Amino acid sequence: MNVLLDNFPEFRDGFIGTVSITAISSVIALVLGVIIAGFRVSPVPPLRYFGTAWVTLMRNTPLTLLFLIFFFVVPEILFPGMSPFVLGSLALGFYTSSFVCEAVRSGINTVPLGQAEAARSIGMTFAQTLRIVVFPQATRIVIPPLSSIFIALTKNSAIAGAFSVAELFGWQKLMSDRGYDIVPVFIWVALGYLVVTFTISGLFRLLERRMEVAR
User: Fold this and answer.
1) How does the protein's chain sit in the membrane according to the entry (predicted)?
2) Alpha-carbon distance 148 to 77, whole Å?
3) Does pTM surpass 0.70?
């Protein structure tokens, strides 16, 4: 208990950092994932090719390598001076967006094709069909896999601690450098991650219950 009480400000900052990078990268991943999923089912070939290339590249690139690219290549070429927190959020969000995309695309594929054809027959555009007809039905299907994806994102955020981003894994390294026993340090870090992941799981279970269809 002493390791926490004696270093509570640092632990608090690490916990807040983990929550912050998880929240921001989740928003990035969700927005990008939905857009890329729309590209992948688009009738426009260049958009489909772009969506396929995005998913293939992001899913098959190790996350650590992606962090290295964002921290050591992107600032040199595009955005010099960007903070480590922003770079870490972008790397994590871009990586996770490919998994969100595939979950959303799977949900879209469960919607009967006839509904999309009916929407187009009354003059709806492709974007309107997705937004008004397809996405509302697909959402019920994709909530469970999205829960697992965002829980995995929370755990993946530990990599950001190795790149000067203040979060729980960074706190663990600090405590190790100060000579504390590693076992209680890891216990508190694990409890911090459990709080975040249980919260995400609870929120998604609430969404499932609110959106489920009575049978």
Assistant:
1) Multi-pass membrane protein
2) 34
3) yes
